[in-house]
Every structure is written in C-alpha cells, then in structure tokens.
Amino acid sequence: MRKSILIVDDDEFNRELLRQMFEDEFKILMAEDGKQAMSQLDQHMEDVAVVLLDLIMPVLNGYQVLKALNSRRILEEIPVVLITANNDEQTEFSCYSLGASAVITKPFAAQTVRQRVHNIIDLHRNADALAKKVQQQRERLHEQRRKMEIFNEKLVDVVSNIVEFRDLESGAHVKRVKGLTRIMAKAYMELYPESGLDENKINVIVRASALHDLGKISIPDSILLKPGRLTDEEREIMMSHTTKGCEILKLIDVVEDEQMQAAYDICRHHHERHDGKGYPDGLKGDDIPLSAQLVSIVDVYDALVCDRVYKKAFDKDTAYNMIQNGDCGIFSPKLLKCFEHVRKEMEEFSDSQKD
C-alpha cells in the first residue's frame, strides 16, 4: 500500500500548510519545483499515493510536470491533484486535459483538501484493483480457451487415428494427404500472399486434412471396399460421407475454434469443384473454403497415383494431365498453378510414402 504524499510547491508556506494536513497519516515528500518533483518520483515511485502539484513554479511548472508524467505513463499509477490560485475555466480545463485527477484553487479549506485527496486516493486504488482483477480474469479466460483449443487439437488427432485404423489403405492415404496438403499450402502461401496463409494456418489445415474422409466410417464396407463400379444408389451413399463427417464433428466440437472450423470446412467441402459441379452444396469458386480447395486437389491426386480397390494407379504424367485437363473436376486456376509449381515435390513425396 502506498504511504507517501509528494507536495510540490515553490512557496514554503504552502508546502508547510499541506504537510501539516497529512503528516499524521502519510510520509511527506517535498519538492520546490517541477524538476525536484520528477527526481523525487524517480526515487519513490512505488511509495507515492498522490502528488499535490502547484501550477506556477520555476524550472518546470505544473503543466510541464503533467506533460512529463503523461509521456512516461506515470499518471496511470499515481493521481495528481493540481493546486493553483488561477480559478478560471480555461486553467481547469487545461489541467484536466493533461491528466490531473482534481483541481483545487487557493485559498483552500484544509478539511476540503484532505477529504478530496482521500477520495482520489481511494478511487484510484479501487480502479487499480478492479483493473488488476479484470486483467487476471482475462488471463484466466485466455488460459481456459487455450486449454480447450489444445483439447480440440488432440481430439482431432484421436479421431483421425480412428479413420486411419478403418483399413490400411485409408491410413496410408491420410498420411499422404497431410504431407501433400502441406506442400500445396506452402506453395499457395508463396504464390498468393494475399490469401493470408501463414505457417500457423497451414498447420491448422494440415492437421484438419486428416479428417477429410471422417464420414466414411459410417459407410458400409460393402460399398466402401467394393472393387467394382458403384451403382447410383451406392454412389449417393458414398457421397454422403461429406455430410456424415460433419455430423460427427458437431457431436465432438467442444469449443468452436480455428481448428474445428477447418476440419468442418474440409470434411464437408473437399469434393466441391470450382465450376459448382461438386458436392454436397455445389459451391463455386472462392465460395469454397481455401482449406477445402487445397485438400480437394491433393485428395484427387493421391487417388490417381495410388492403387485402390476399384482401380490400378495411373502413372505420374497421366495423373498430372488428368487434373490439369479437368478430367477429375474443375479446380481453380490458382490451385492448378500451385500444382504445377510443386509437381516434382509432390511426386517425390508420394513416392517416398509407398516404400
């Protein structure tokens, strides 16, 4: 608790008068001008409860002291009461605009000064205590939010492992999709900085990409693992994995955050296409979340260059040309440019995961 009052006045009589008012309750510090006042504050900053400051003084006047205290943000810690013989409105306005907590005009009544100073000290102390409580609460809420975000991240990892364990093909596919998504996202960040992608957002998208086929855990094995062509009815059921996955995510979404939003967008929209002929919502162009766009082209590429129960792998050139020519649906020109930019890196990564 602060226990000192700094009295700043070039008139010795006024200093003595103010000292007598407060010496029974506070330790008294004195200064004859603004320069001495600043020196006293430098030495006793932590102990000063209030400054009683005269306006007209040599060396540094009250205005100059207030400006100095303002620039050093000291007025946030210590209230200042101006004591002046000038009782015009302009003087009072100037003092308050510079940060004074109160203005008392001379001559003053001792009892009035004492009460006003006590009120200001109490008000400042309470405001300071409230600010600290608000800050503590803000920090506590931030920490709780961060813990929930970490929990969501771990939840994504756990659920993605469930998808991986469904069958060996899905598990390998998930790992490849994560790696290929990172390659594509970094290319997009490099070629299109206006997209706002950064390393943190890329990490979020890569982690969420593991859940792109989450809904397939609800698809019967007879359809999911069917080696031949699907019937129209079976295809409808297979396509429902996008919305089924979102239903699962809604059940486990503990807190809405960037990670879960990315997982939802990717899960629902990774089969949308730039021309609006994808599913489930027929979104067009940039209405498709960027995270889903990145995963969509990666998902197709991996399906082309790898063996599946219903087909053999295409060679790299054929797969590349099929995507560029729109044989697997239309992708945005930006995605295709990124794909061209990192084609070799994607091929090398894909090959490394087949060993």
What would the keywords be for this entry?
alpha/beta, five-stranded parallel beta sheet, 5 strands, 59% helix
Detail the topology: elements first, then pairings:
Layout: E1 4-8, H1 12-22, E2 27-31, H2 34-44, E3 48-54, H3 62-71, E4 80-84, H4 89-97, E5 102-105, H5 110-164, H6 168-191, H7 199-209, H8 221-224, H9 232-239, H10 241-252, H11 258-269, H12 290-305, H13 316-324, H14 333-341, H15 343-352
Parallel strand pairs: 1-2, 1-3, 3-4, 4-5
Give a quick rundown of the structure.
The protein is 59% helix and 7% strand. The protein is of the alpha/beta class and 355 residues long. The mean pLDDT is 87.
- The protein's oligomeric status is single chain
Using the CA coordinates, give the radius of gyration: 35 Å
Q: Return residue spans where pLDDT drops below 50 for at least 5 consecutive residues.
A: none
| Number of DSSP-assigned strands | 5
Largest sheet properties: 5 strands, parallel
The end-to-end distance, rounded to whole angstroms, is 69 Å
What proportion of the residues form beta strands (DSSP E)? 5-15%
The chain-level structural class is: alpha/beta
Number of helices: 15
The average pLDDT score comes to 87
Order of helices and strands: EHEHEHEHEHHHHHHHHHHH
| Principal-axes shape call | rod-shaped
Order of adjacent strands in the largest pleated sheet: 2-1-3-4-5
Determine the fraction of residues in helical runs and give it as a percent range. Answer: 55-70%
